[in-house]
Amino acid sequence: MEHYRSRSPISSSHSRPPAYERERGGRGRSHCENQRFRPNNQRQHQSESAAEHNPLNSRALSTRRELYERDFPVYKQPVEVGSFSLDSERRFFNDGRQMRYYVEPERNPNFDLRDGYKDRFVKRDDSVKEKLDHVLRWVVANRSKLNSRKTSASSCALDVDFVTWRGHLTKLLTTPYETKEGWMLAATKFRGTIYISEVETEAARRERENRTERHKEMMYWGYKFEQYTCADNVHGAPDPGGVVNTNEAFCTVVQTRLADHRLLFSGEVDCRDKDPGAPAPPACYVELKTSAEICTPKQRSNFHRFKLLKWWAQSFLPGVPRVVAGFRDHEGVVVSVETFHISKISQLIKNEYNCWRPTVCMNFCCDFLTFVKQTVTEDSPSVVYMFSWEPRRDVTFSVHRDSQFSFLPHWYVEEMTRRPNSHHQS
Ligand code: A3P
Ligand code: MG
Known about the structure:
Mean pLDDT: 88
Bound molecules: adenosine-3'-5'-diphosphate, magnesium ion
Strand content: 15-25%
Number of strands: 20
Order of helices and strands: EEEEEEEHHEHEEHHEEEEEEHEEHHEEH
Number of helices: 9
Low-confidence stretches: 1-18, 23-34, 40-57
Number of domains: 1
Largest sheet: 9 strands, mixed
Shape: globular
Distance between the termini: 53 Å
């Protein structure tokens, strides 16, 4: 049974805090409705082949907020099933060597985030598109963990419906509130699992290639804040004199379920609580953020409406419980530090007029995944269903065979087609 809430933006039933579902099934489970999937016109549905112009497949998904104002869907507590590291040269390691430890700064630390930008900064080349490769490397290295519950009779190689990056899911959660940036998500079904990988839009490529010097420097500030607040070892201290290298990353891999969608995704984690008595991952993880200092009611309102939405979505998905924020002035000096508990963010924004709601984010994501499951029917590593969205439009898709959009690498397809016990040593 579904319960609908008022569609009024000033509804007082606004602030039910989202909680993770700890047990299977249960209350509040919602179905995804067909009314959000609409017949689409042929103009929006582009396809590489005339055979794809099947009206039965020509559908679109609305992103209008009012359609997603219903009970919070079941979202199981995410479980960490593994982790991996990328070193200073972006090499993959199936371990936690790049894990860092949070060292709490003073409340007013005066960290200079500009320090080292010119002389101690190695920036990852973001024109290199890694697609899902690192996640797939992790899957290959940990395959036995993922299909242990499957019988040999099953045709499903992995015990999940979707494999993706956390960041792609964050974009989905924030879509009903996004007014500026569209996205393209490529989906391929292979042995029963749908892989979702982002494709850079033309607009995003232009933005990336035309960043101002000021913008480039400001992008460094977030990483510099991480360096001021993280140590490489559990008993160590931060080293603000070192090099900031954005190739390095520690990533968690979590498994969870959103309604009837079984998800496996990975996301970069900034650091963990160094207390040995801290809860197990992902509950011990800490997300670090920087933001402009808040001086006026208007700035506070914008922070609640736009920044906290992104911060909440990013950390809620993998079950990271807190964000430590460094508020900086225009010169890049951190003037104050504050902790935000993810579970308290919906309370914090409840008095904000016409603000975002966690339930809309999660229901939209759920319905998008249902739409993807309905659409992505052909099970083949070289077929890509491209889902595209622009603000104020519906989500549409197109189908591509053996195109430049294919993203599952040959080594992955070969490895996953091999029988589990025929794994060779190399
Ligand atoms: P801030 O978020 O503190 O600005 P993350 O917080 O997701 O771990 O990302 C770390 C830092 O990467 C960000 O810190 C920011 O400096 C940079 N960054 C990540 N994505 C970005 C984007 N889309 N635009 C600009 N900077 C980005
Ligand atoms: Mg961060």
